[in-house]
């Protein structure tokens, strides 16, 4: 899951980027409000962690601006402004959640996972389809109850497809979810990961929509 981190404190930003990366997130880090607004408008991230006290452009102004532009990306506000009126201002400006510094890293990760699930209409923590069960918290996948070993990229690709079950995702969209800034992407990387997932989880799980991309069909109600 690729997220945007907007934080100007170098020590905190480095710690959050490192810690969230160790928990399975792909983290792009910006250090001012102008850069944060630009990246939020780019629409390549699954969610954002936004500090309010950013230089060049305040976090509240960033948030209000992107919401006026119709951008619905889940945004978790992270700030030292813990007064109730400040929290209300953040939520009214369009924040989806609000965490006061210092924050527990595991809690932050859980809140991000929950925000992304809800944004995709997936209220349950476990994503299930066709006998496949994915647990984002433990980064584990089971097929008919049996644990399946996946690489980091394979897991992230499957996660993106399950979150968007029923939607066709292009190769470019999937690459955006798998790789953060500066990471080299092989031209056939997505196709290779799809091949491995089909081998491990069944050939019929991931459908190819020729000339468009890939999808996983949603589970039909019993």
UniProtKB/TrEMBL annotation:
Does the keyword section mention Transcription regulation? Answer: yes
Q: Which residues carry this modification: 4-aspartylphosphate?
A: 51
> Per the database entry, where does the chain bind DNA?
124-218
Designated name of the protein: Winged helix-turn-helix domain-containing protein
- The Response regulatory domain extends over 2-116
| Localization of this protein | Cytoplasm
Q: Which InterPro entries is this protein grouped with? A: CheY-like_superfamily, OmpR/PhoB-type_DNA-bd, Sig_transdc_resp-reg_receiver, WalR-like, WH-like_DNA-bd_sf
Gene3D superfamilies referenced in this protein's UniProt entry, alphabetically: 3.40.50.2300, 6.10.250.690, Winged helix-like DNA-binding domain superfamily/Winged helix DNA-binding domain (1.10.10.10)
The segment(s) forming the OmpR/PhoB-type domain are: 124-218
Show the SMART domains listed in the entry.
REC, Trans_reg_C
Write down the SUPFAM superfamilies for this protein, in alphabetical order: CheY-like
Mostly located where? cytoplasm
Task: Give the species.
Answer: Azohydromonas lata
State a single Pfam family of this protein.
Trans_reg_C
For this UniProt record, the keywords arranged alphabetically read as follows:
Cytoplasm, DNA-binding, Phosphoprotein, Transcription, Transcription regulation, Two-component regulatory system
């Amino acid at each position: 899951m690729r997220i945007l981190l907007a934080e100007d404190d170098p020590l905190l930003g480095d710690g959050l980027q490192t810690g969230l990366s160790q928990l399975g997130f792909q983290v792009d880090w910006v250090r001012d409000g102008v850069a944060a607004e630009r990246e939020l408008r780019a629409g390549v991230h699954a969610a954002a962690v936004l500090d309010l006290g950013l230089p060049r452009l305040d976090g509240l102004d960033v948030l209000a601006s992107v919401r006026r532009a119709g951008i619905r990306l889940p945004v978790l506000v992270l700030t030292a402004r813990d007064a109730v009126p400040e929290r209300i201002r953040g939520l009214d400006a369009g924040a989806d959640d609000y965490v006061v510094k210092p924050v527990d890293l595991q809690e932050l990760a859980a809140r991000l996972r929950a925000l992304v699930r809800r944004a995709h209409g997936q209220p349950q923590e476990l994503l299930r389809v066709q006998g496949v069960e994915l647990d984002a918290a433990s980064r584990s996948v089971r097929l008919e109850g049996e644990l399946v070993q996946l690489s980091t990229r394979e897991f992230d690709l499957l996660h993106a497809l399950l979150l968007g079950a029923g939607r066709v995702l292009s190769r470019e969209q999937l690459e955006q979810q798998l790789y953060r800034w500066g990471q080299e992407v092989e031209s056939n990387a997505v196709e290779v990961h799809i091949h491995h997932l089909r081998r491990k989880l069944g050939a019929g799980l991931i459908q190819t929509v020729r000339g468009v991309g890939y999808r996983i069909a949603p589970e039909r109600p019993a």
